[in-house]
Amino acid sequence: MKNSKLTQSILAIIAIAVLATISGCDRSQQTTGTTAATRDLEPQYIGGYPTEETAGAAFDEYDYQAATQFYVWGYAYLNSLGYEKGLQRLGGDERTIYLFDKRIQPQQGLITPNDEVVYVITPYIDLSKGPIIYEVPPRTRGHLWDLGMRAYTDFGDIGPDRGKGGKYLIYSTDYEGELPEGFFNVPIEHSYLVSPAVRSFPATEGSLEAAVKHGSTARWYYLAEADDPPKNPILLIGERPYSQEWPKDIKAFEWLAEAFNRDKVPAAGLAHLGNMRRLGFEKGKPFSPDERAKKILARAAKTAEAIVLSMAFRPRTPPIYENRKYEQVFNNVSPIFLLENYEEVEARAGGWHQLVGNFVVRVPAKPGTGQFNMVAYRDADGNFLIGSHTYRLRVPADVPVKQFWQIPVYEVATRALINTDQKRTSLSSTDDLVKNDDGSVDLYFAPELPKDVPEKNWVKTIPNEGWFTLPRLYGPLEPILEKTWRWNDFEKVNSEQ
């Protein structure tokens, strides 16, 4: 009897904890949802032994919880595979370097991009074949991450080349050969698969065409090919459709199986893969869940996706400013998500629902370098931004940046640039905006052009659909880095205003 009551108490505590996670929460309090995430077990025992029915139900619950936790833990891998598979659908191969050579279009479902830069990206490169050399052009800025979105170095003015460009030697820590001198060395511990990417800036190079030409000089090759490096095919994406989206159902586990059949399993993943063996998921073998496993995995995916969405849009972390509604973009402390005593699972899963690529340096130490990011999901009153309403953002005069600022608009459902018949997705200091007498600029976000508002200061939104933005400050100066300058909040206004 005592064992039965104790088990019921433990299960009740687990159920309450999972419910609180799924429903999301404000920082000041937690609330529970209306749908139970776990089944109530009423275990029965014979002389202290679990009955067959109790054991069956308990193992079902254990496997369901294991699958749910694995989905959340591995979420960044889904992001990475979506990114790569989107490139593969455009053609090319492992050697191809892809350029978004036009302003990114709404039909191009790259997650939260900036449509004022030229992205120069590669599929994931396999370091188990040997070290690679990546040549970074000067005046570009970028990052190197692995299949699990762990960041290992930055390129450009916030990286070791300090904006001058250079050659990076990237290798797995289990490589046993000799490493030559004269490179920026980047050892990779937790994965064999890495993706270097840089951005070339039309504002710096003088035109979009010049930025594309400059970005096209990025290249990579294996160390063994250094004496006679092969050329990388360049694929210009133009206005072709692209989608990075990944599955949110049982097929997500199929993708995760693909990820770990291609890549090494980091130490943090060993327990997860041990649990998943009971559900048809085993490294080196095809993913083959039986009917029982399929039911558990379908249920786990539904719960886990709700958990990830809660982590993404209701993060349990402090805002970036005390008196504003802007959130941190990167909630992880470590660029590889590993601190001394724990792994940053929640920060990774929540962030990489709507981010691509990871930085080592999130806040530049030197004014006028790098970028300063944040995210806004809510208006000044703390309510989520919804496309049915009219919002105004007042940008003060003389924003303290060396390069430019930008306010892009993304759909919550896709995390891609908003797609309306207006075909405008962002407002920026590089645009010909209508300014107020004091030099400030009023930007509007609404389903229809508000009365007396210049059309060039307006982005059209979608009624009843959530939207958000990642305001970007390129080359932030001291007031931004010291947080004495900050964005105003989005104000909800009457549509006639």
SSE inventory with pairings:
Elements: H1 2-23, E1 45-46, E2 49-50, H2 52-73, H3 75-88, E3 97-99, E4 108-109, E5 118-121, E6 125-126, E7 132-136, E8 141-146, E9 151-155, E10 166-172, E11 184-188, E12 193-200, H4 202-205, H5 208-215, E13 219-222, E14 234-236, E15 242-243, H6 251-262, H7 270-276, H8 291-313, H9 345-351, E16 371-373, E17 390-395, E18 405-408, E19 410-411, E20 426-428, E21 441-446, E22 458-460, E23 467-468, E24 472-474, H10 478-481, E25 491-493
Parallel strand pairs: 3-14, 4-15, 10-11, 21-22
Antiparallel strand pairs: 1-2, 3-5, 5-12, 6-12, 7-10, 7-13, 8-9, 8-12, 16-24, 17-21, 17-25, 18-20, 18-24, 19-23
Description:
It is globular, with a radius of gyration of 24 Å. Strand 8 and strand 9 (151-155) form a beta hairpin. Strands 3, 5, 6, 8, 9, 12 and 14 form a seven-stranded mixed beta sheet that branches. It starts with a helix and ends with a strand. The chain has ten helices and 25 strands. The protein has 497 residues and is α+β, with helices and mostly antiparallel strands. Helix 2 (52-73) crosses helix 8. The chain folds into three domains: 2-75 and 248-313, VPA0735-like domain (VPA0735-like fold); 91-239, Immunoglobulin-like, CATH 2.60.40.1610; 363-497, Domain of unknown function DUF1214, C-terminal domain (Jelly Rolls), CATH 2.60.120. Mean pLDDT is 91; it is low at 1-38.
